# Entry
Amino acid sequence: MIVWLNGTHGAGKTTTAALVRRLIPDVRVFDAEKVGETLMDITPGLPETDNFQHWPPWRPLVVETARRVLDYTGGTLVIPMTVLVEEYWREIRSGLARHAVPVRHFVLHADPDTLRGRIANDTVLGPDSPFRLRHLEPYAEAARTWLHAEAEVVDTTHLTPDGVALRIAEAVKG
# Structure
């Protein structure tokens, strides 16, 4: 099974993935961003883009990597990865379905003021990361139009990271 943690950049996906790993037996975390980094390392470079998810090879490579890891190890794979383009999410989801890989899709959501506060105090990318701030509106648009309907939404506004992870682990186990 795959537990996909979605949400805007800075929502806590990576932190939650590490905590979920401690709560569910036989879990591995797969950072699909590494697939994008591999594509960025190709020389000469692929066509210019501001987001490696726009490169057509990224999505099937994520599917193929995830399913091969699961074929090899079994268990549960937690993937903390923002996907805000509906077409890309459908491509990934259908690719996994073709390989009979079940997916639990969670969106870590917080109200806009909470998100801005978390980004302002971010110790990973630094305070007020332009990258994270730039994705707030695309996330809000995706949430309004399709994303929340495609996932189990976990409102993290008033939850600690441990509380978020526990809620997801209980949902997956239950």
In short: The mean pLDDT is 96.
